[in-house]
Design a protein that fits this description.
It holds the Pfam family CAP. The protein is an alpha+beta fold and 175 residues long. It contains 6 helices and 5 strands. The protein has a 5-stranded mixed sheet with strand order 1-3-5-4-2.
Length: 175
């Protein structure tokens, strides 16, 4: 009986510690809107996040996402805004980010965004997103492009943003 009580307390304590170390949030929009190694630490956190996202997608039989610099610039900007307190943690401005992307890249048929913060490695943040139903859905969504941005805030807390879009291939009439 004592051991059972001890393990309940230990489990609850671990859950509180994990919850205090990281937080994440996801948002998606659909419709018309105006390697070889299993562990990676390249020193480029954004590239490492891409590696782990595509590794996960591959394990589910999905095509890899292509990293897009326009999307990454928007993701980095959002991470910086959260890190320096200009905007709260979450998805404020998501629709504007997608509008800006659409102006630069053309029609976007679907878009989604994942955010997180904490003292996390690339592998740990992707693992956290995988374990969260909303984030997992975004990572497995019908998207072909991704943008990834990170920024450090107070206490060296890292803010992470992923932007996913489905950019239909440009079709030109060939008659």
């Amino acid at each position: 009986m004592l051991n059972q009580h001890f393990f309940k307390i230990l489990f609850f304590s671990a859950a509180v510690i994990v919850a205090s170390q990281a937080s994440a949030c996801s948002k998606s929009v659909s419709g018309n809107t105006s390697s070889a190694s299993s562990v990676r630490n390249s020193g480029d956190e954004e590239q490492d996040i891409l590696f782990y996202v595509n590794k996960f997608r591959k394990s589910k039989g999905l095509a890899p996402l292509s990293l897009n610099e326009t999307l990454s610039l928007e993701a980095r900007s959002h991470s910086k805004s959260m890190a320096n307190g200009r905007t709260g943690f979450g998805h404020d401005g998501f629709e504007q980010r997608i509008d800006d992307i659409s102006k630069k890249l053309g029609r976007v048929s679907a878009a989604a965004e994942n955010v997180a913060y904490g003292n996390l490695s690339a592998e740990a943040v992707v693992d956290g997103w995988i374990k969260s139903p909303g984030h997992r859905k975004n990572m497995l969504g019908n998207f072909n492009l991704i943008g990834i941005g990170t920024a450090k805030g107070k206490g060296n807390i890292v803010y992470f943003t992923q932007i996913f879009i489905n950019k239909p291939a440009d079709r030109t009439a060939s008659k």
